[in-house]
Amino acid sequence: MKSKAKPNTGTPKKERTQIKGADVTETAKVQRRDLLRKALPSVEVLASIAAVVAKGTHAEPGLAVDCAFRLWKSARARLREEIQEAADDAMYEKLQAESWDKIAQLREYPGTFAQFLKLVVKAKTPADSTKRFREYLRDSLSEDEAVRRIGELKRVGFRDWTAWLYEAECYLHWWAGQRSELARAAAKKRKSKKTY
């Protein structure tokens, strides 16, 4: 059985590759041009906007069309901003929901500070949990403010799930950074103990 021979196009392989790349570039240019065409208003849309603009004034048709085009571009830009904001909000809510799903929560609120230490901080002992939580607070507050905040949490606790989740998320973010620093320090210590 005969095998099919590859057709000789008359151009060396290197040139064929370059031509193929040029085709891809040309295709991308055509796609961009098509997108721009789709992004621009139709003549009918511009004409209707221009008619509305010119209706109450005695503006020249060219000025009315220029004004209509500027109005259309402004509306398009505003719509893009709104769409982006909505997409950002949706992404933020999705990320929040995913991260909040990982946080231990209570069935009923208000939650106590002891419950928070047990479910979120999770140190070996309650004293270790309190110490670690105080360190977390001292990253953003003074020592006195941290002690006051802990006292307030012991008295009042967490009134609702939003306060619980907010504090838990901030604490867990801080603790992840602390753990990576501790791991780095331990690795450095192990490395320095090795003698060659």
Tell me about the largest β-sheet: none
Oligomer: single chain
SSE sequence, one letter per element: HHHHHHH
Radius of gyration: 32 Å
Strand content: under 5%
Global outline: elongated
- What's the number of structural domains? 2
Unreliable stretches, pLDDT < 50, 5 or more residues? Answer: 13-22
Which structural class matches the secondary elements?
A: mainly alpha
Give an overview in words.
With 196 residues, this protein is mainly alpha-helical. The chain has 2 domains: 62 residues; 77 residues, no CATH class. Helix 2 crosses helix 3, helix 4 packs across helix 5 and helix 5 crosses helix 6. The longest helix has 41 residues. The protein is elongated.
Short description:
By secondary structure, the protein is mainly α. It is 77% helix and 0% strand.
Features:
mainly alpha, elongated
